[in-house]
Write a structure and sequence with these properties.
Strand content: 5-15%
Number of domains: 1
Number of helices: 11
Radius of gyration: 20 Å
Strand order of the largest sheet: 2-3-1-4-6
Helix content: 25-40%
Shape: globular
């Protein structure tokens, strides 16, 4: 498997976000450059046999990996080095971008770990000065509905060939108790990661609503990304498009949702999400499970 320490840790970049934040489209846009290679979610449970996936890495028949599965702090550090080296050897471009969702960072935590403490993996990356791109979505209600719609439709991203695809017969029911709980957890998690990355000099904040202009990455976001990747491309484009049908239009109990959120911190988000004519602001993201209270 090669040496434990990759030759260049500055080759790695991380996209950190909640599901349905447009990270798949962003990764595809970055991957179209000549110097950036983007990996799908490395901790996704549906790896499809992708050798870059962490769980595929763990299947390697290597006696040195077996003893490292005991989750002590020292073992986690060694395993982290081996996995990065493994990814380093698979890479073919100058930079490698890893996609890690909020609810996947725990995979390198050791035996004893406080749920409010920074993930061990995040500390590992920060100790190596790895650039972390924190993609956030301001309207958490739209994000939740987008995820619910994707799960119901079974389709999680769209390209030009899907532009005319709009099944208006499909509807989704939103459990308002589950919705409010999930929104509170998502908001708290997003704020927690903001605190984890506060004052870290190699972090970059991007907001979902400001990343895209159609199938192009907006100029301001492009320049922010250029400042850390130093690519020469004049613009970044993706082959993904916005969800053809506005997800909120599929919600069968819209008035119930609005009433449930009327006197909560999410009231304005709900009004905006259900405005007539409002659509997804960016291409849809990668496949994920249905919304749960433990998001």
């Amino acid at each position: 498997m090669g040496s434990d320490i990759p030759a260049r840790r500055d080759r790695f970049f991380v996209i950190c976000a909640q599901q349905r934040s447009g990270t798949t489209a962003l990764g595809k846009a970055l991957g179209r450059t000549s110097t950036i290679e983007t990996y799908a979610e490395i901790f996704h449970d549906k790896s499809g046999g992708d050798p870059r996936n962490y769980f595929e890495f763990l299947k390697i028949d290597d006696s040195n990996l077996q003893y490292l599965r005991y989750p002590s702090q020292d073992n986690r550090k060694i395993l982290f080095g081996k996995y990065l080296n493994y990814l380093h050897n698979l890479g073919r471009k100058k930079h490698i971008v890893l996609d890690i969702k909020y609810n996947s960072w725990h995979n390198f935590d050791s035996i004893w770990h406080s749920p409010m403490a920074p993930p061990v993996l995040l500390d590992f990356f920060k100790s190596e000065n790895v650039n972390i791109i924190h993609v956030q979505r301001r309207n958490l209600v739209s994000q939740y509905v987008s995820l619910a719609y994707s799960d119901a439709s079974g389709k999680y991203f769209y390209t030009e060939t899907d532009r005319n695809e709009s099944d208006t017969s499909k509807s989704i029911y939103i459990d308002t108790k589950l919705l409010l709980n999930s929104l509170l957890v998502t908001q708290a998690t997003q704020n927690l990661f903001r605190s984890f990355l506060r004052n870290y000099p190699n972090s970059l904040d991007l907001y979902y609503d400001e990343i895209y202009n159609g199938q192009r990455v907006a100029s301001e976001a492009t320049e922010k990304l250029r400042s850390i990747f130093h690519f020469e491309d004049s613009e970044l484009t993706t082959d993904q498009i916005m969800t053809p049908r506005r997800p909120a239009s599929a919600v069968s109990n819209r008035e119930e949702v609005l009433a449930a959120l009327a006197h909560t911190p999410f009231a304005e988000m709900a009004m905006e999400a259900f405005q007539d004519g409002t659509s997804e602001a960016t291409p849809a993201g990668a496949q994920q499970p249905a919304p749960q209270s433990t998001v």
